[in-house]
Amino acid sequence: TTKIPFRLNQNQALLTFEDEEVAQRLIKMGKHTVNLDNKIAHVSVKPFTLEMGIKFELHVTISGKKINVSEVPELPIPEEWMRDKLELNFYKSDQGGGGEVENVNYDKQSRTAVITFLRPGATNSFVRCAKYPFFVNGRCYRLSVSPDTNIHLEKFQLYCGISKKTILLKGIQDMEDDEESVQDMIEIHFQKPSNSGGEIETIKYVSKGVTWVCFEE
């Protein structure tokens, strides 16, 4: 689920309650009188609509038989020879994995290859080794090795709506107190059951300028 930004303007506050019934009760009341450091503030409680959000499941499957190889050195040898040398090199792996190779798909132009092993789980040791030694013509080169993955999305949904547990406070007057102190006074007021409030999960008050507050589902 992507985070949804909300623009919180000057002298406004957002309060998220543990119980959505508290938020809905305060919204129905509409107007509230809050004592802020012996100053009476008449604030309004509003619901607000979140912008568009996205929700999806990302499924990643890591192959146990295939690895992707890149940075294969450019050598003056036929492509068939290079395939053979790649197959032999990974068959004789010093990393403890490898084994019999089923297929080598080598692309000379991109200097990449896909190595497919016969035995499931043969790739386990290679995915922990980003750089793999490749011996050819008496020299040692370093190949970049990465797991072969299959990625797909499921349950992709767009959504928007009104937050059920969060209220927007408007009409908070300018205060000489610092922002944190005013925020504490607002929190104390709306946590009291005698003020129709309840336990608050999160609160954010802005005295100057604007800020972006991010919501999750």
From TrEMBL:
Cellular component terms (Gene Ontology): cytoplasm; extracellular space; nucleus
Localisation per UniProt entry: Cytoplasm; Nucleus; Secreted
InterPro entries in the record: Nmi/IFP35_dom (IPR009909), Nucleotide-bd_a/b_plait_sf (IPR012677)
Keywords attached to this entry: Cytoplasm, Immunity, Innate immunity, Nucleus, Secreted
UniProt domain NID: residue ranges: 13-102, 113-201
Classification via Pfam families: NID
GO biological process: innate immune response; regulation of innate immune response
Superkingdom of source: Eukaryota
Family recorded in the similarity comment: Belongs to the NMI family.
Protein's name in the database: NMI protein
Source species of the chain: Burhinus bistriatus
Gene name tied to this protein: Nmi_1
